[in-house]
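Title: [Solved] ABC transporter ATP-binding protein 3D structure

Original question kept below for reference.
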Amino acid sequence: MHTAIELTELTKSYGSRRGLDGLSLQVRAGEVFGYLGPNGAGKSTTIRLLLDLIRPTSGSARVLGLDPRADAARLHRRTGYLAGDFVVDGRRRAGECLAFLARLRGGVPAHRITGLAARLDVDLDARIKSLSKGNRQKVGLIQAFMHEPELLILDEPTSGLDPLVQQTFLDMVGEARDNGQTVFMSSHILSEVEAVTDRVAIIREGALVALDTVDALRARSSLRVRVTFAAPVPAGEFAALPGVQHVSADGDTLTCTVDGSPDALVKAAAQYTVTGLHADTQDLEELFQAYYTGPRAA
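Solution (posted by the thread starter after getting help):
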């Protein structure tokens, strides 16, 4: 499968601090790729390196088969980019701003701009400086999508948007994928990651800690178990079982988490009289939080 983005041992240092630490990953052409991590993890640094807004300390990046530095002009024509906080000349009207950016990209049909503006409820006659952050972000979305680029690079694209507009954005991302475009987006909104991404990369302290589909990552999550017995049981007996962690006992109720198969726990519990059993997996928020705070290993 053709690769839209390929990073090889990409490193960016800011003095004694590393923004990226030997990051290697591939983004397939035509997929929606979620890029997650806590604040300061290196998400925006990665995006700026992809666009040659900053230069790497070492390692390499190829975007749409091009070198972001040597082929910057060609690459930017084929890319749509939205920064986390879209900033342009506030004196211009939104429509004037978009028309100017459209000319820079070789021209965009006027109906494409007005159509996106209608979907996102953007007043094209309003001056940029009069717009709220959310409405400025809508203008940013229009300029990123309007020329139907091969690659969309979106840094926290729904920042400041209300839930209805967030859903419109998700629809636009789905349409871009159906059109064969590649979408690389960082996000803190886990519901949108689950809704539209094909794969997810999680970085922490500039290093990759997980890369897979959301479903596959969820399959690795811990199982939370609560067992009620007819009488109190020895918690230590269960704490020694393989994969069983965080064991606590309160009277006749034992709670724990299980990594992997719960077979050993079930067999141990069967030695006693079980009166109740409840088990569920971590929700998405807990799953990603575990990657953010747990051991830094892919």
